[in-house]
């Protein structure tokens, strides 16, 4: 039977974004389950929050809208009191979408005419001020995201960027209102709605700002943002007497088996993590997209490499490249084709590693995580303790148990891979 206790229904536009959001909710005391797409069977967990992970961030607009609407209709059947559309804290989206079009469609489906949009995640260096998104101390378009192979972010002005994607009028919920507290935010929201604003970019430069926004939006039917905006939502439900306190929300079983790291992201953070792994002298095998395109047996070579090392220690198989290398490959193969080649190769490798007894996977990159999770036949995840901000341990629900750490390319310290593998050994205790 489906749990009657579901309070919050969430849609995430990629797999690592879903675990990022679920991690935030677990930290707030909500027992959270993540599904891979819309389930074809009832949930059997006592979930208080459910996150539906889609692979819609870079999908064609019509497909992204259709999948998101299917997810919201399923979440409605769970009796959710509030809904959340989660996208990346670097606002990854092109001028065609998909953040704006999906937000418009969800508002219409829920019968609401206003929602805030706030990707801020200060704990990971993402802040919004005067409508501009900063990554650390630099504007979004100077952060390296301007070189993203699928969603190059060349404009840090979120009001301007979102307006190019949506039919709704976009406004700004300014910081001078946010810093004065939830009541001032309520006044500002009323003013924006009176001006015909449907989507409002919200400034936030600290966790306190996110708690303020969360409190101000306690009765909103729909919120949109990064995972940070969800910080205050568990507290809203608790104050309403709907969320009983529980100490075991992050507990997971320990999964035995071999371990492997798969990295497809080309972000600066993942590049540093790959370099750190190699600098420690740990085994690593690189996949070259041009070799894949030439028909070389790259996957077979990677598995042969794995067979030499997997029984002795975890290994890394990666396609991470510099922006210059990525551009050269895209010029020769095309942006979409080059990305799909890498995803398909890593998905195939994941399946074959599973056949070798790998039961613990660390995966870097949203698109890569989606491909790997689908290849392994994962349908749902229980969310456990945080490894690094935005990245929790997870364990699969149903089938052969697997431990997974699905990491957005931009997240994690340089030693993230090693930390994640260590967390797999005793995640419940390390969560304390």
Please report the distance between the alpha carbons of the first and last residues: 31 Å
Q: CATH topology of the largest domain, what is it called?
A: Rossmann fold
Q: In which range does the helix fraction lie? A: 25-40%
State the secondary-structure class: alpha/beta
Rg computed from alpha carbons, rounded to a whole number of angstroms: 21 Å
How many domains in all? 2
Side-by-side strand order of the widest sheet: 9-10-5-11-4-1-3-2-16-17-18-15-12-14-13
Average the pLDDT over all residues and give the rounded result.
Answer: 91
Return residue spans where pLDDT drops below 50 for at least 5 consecutive residues.
none
CATH superfamily assignment of the largest domain? Putative sugar-binding, N-terminal domain
Query: Could you say which overall geometry the principal axes of the C-alpha atoms support?
Result: globular
Instruction: Output the number of helix runs.
Output: 16
Q: How many extended strands?
A: 18
Strand portion, in percent? Answer: 15-25%
The assigned CATH architecture of the largest domain is 3-Layer(aba) Sandwich
CATH class of the largest domain: Alpha Beta
| Largest sheet features | 15 strands, mixed
């Amino acid at each position: 039977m489906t749990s009657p206790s579901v309070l919050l229904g969430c849609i995430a536009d990629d797999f690592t974004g879903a675990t990022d959001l679920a991690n935030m909710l677990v930290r707030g005391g909500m027992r959270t389950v993540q599904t891979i797409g819309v389930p074809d069977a009832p949930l059997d967990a006592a979930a208080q929050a459910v996150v539906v992970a889609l692979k819609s961030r870079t999908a064609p607009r019509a497909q992204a809208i259709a999948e998101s609407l299917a997810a919201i209709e399923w979440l409605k059947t769970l009796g959710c009191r509030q809904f959340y559309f989660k996208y990346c804290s670097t606002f990854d989206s092109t001028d065609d979408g998909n953040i704006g079009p999906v937000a418009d469609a969800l508002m219409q489906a829920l019968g609401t005419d206003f929602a805030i949009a706030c990707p801020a995640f200060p704990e990971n260096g993402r802040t919004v001020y005067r409508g501009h998104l900063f990554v650390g101390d630099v504007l979004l378009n100077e952060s390296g995201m301007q070189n993203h192979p699928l969603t190059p972010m060349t404009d840090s002005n979120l009001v301007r960027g979102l307006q190019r994607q949506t039919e709704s009028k976009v406004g700004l919920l300014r910081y001078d209102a946010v810093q004065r507290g939830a009541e001032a935010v309520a006044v500002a929201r009323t003013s924006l709605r009176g001006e015909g604003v449907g989507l409002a970019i919200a400034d936030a430069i600290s966790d306190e700002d996110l708690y303020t926004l969360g409190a101000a939006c306690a009765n909103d039917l729909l919120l949109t943002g990064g995972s940070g905006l969800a910080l205050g939502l568990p507290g809203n439900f608790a104050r309403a007497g709907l969320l009983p306190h529980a100490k075991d929300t992050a507990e997971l079983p320990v999964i035995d088996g071999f371990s492997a790291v798969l990295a497809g992201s080309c972000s600066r953070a993942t590049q540093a993590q790959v370099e750190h792994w190699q600098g420690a002298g740990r085994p690593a095998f690189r996949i070259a997209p041009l070799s894949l395109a030439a028909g070389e047996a790259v996957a077979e070579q990677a598995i042969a490499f794995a067979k030499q090392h997997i029984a002795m220690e975890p290994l890394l198989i990666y396609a991470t490249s510099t922006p210059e290398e990525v551009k050269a490959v895209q010029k020769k193969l095309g942006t979409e084709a080059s990305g799909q080649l890498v995803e398909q190769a890593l998905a195939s490798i994941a399946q074959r590693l599973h056949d070798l007894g790998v039961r613990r996977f660390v995966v870097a990159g949203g698109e890569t995580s989606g491909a790997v999770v689908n290849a392994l036949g994962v349908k749902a995840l229980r969310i456990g303790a945080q490894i690094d901000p935005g990245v929790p341990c997870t364990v699969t629900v149903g089938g052969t148990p697997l431990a997974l750490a699905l990491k957005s390319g931009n997240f994690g310290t340089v030693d993230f891979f090693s930390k994640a593998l260590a967390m797999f050994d005793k995640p419940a205790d390390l969560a304390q």
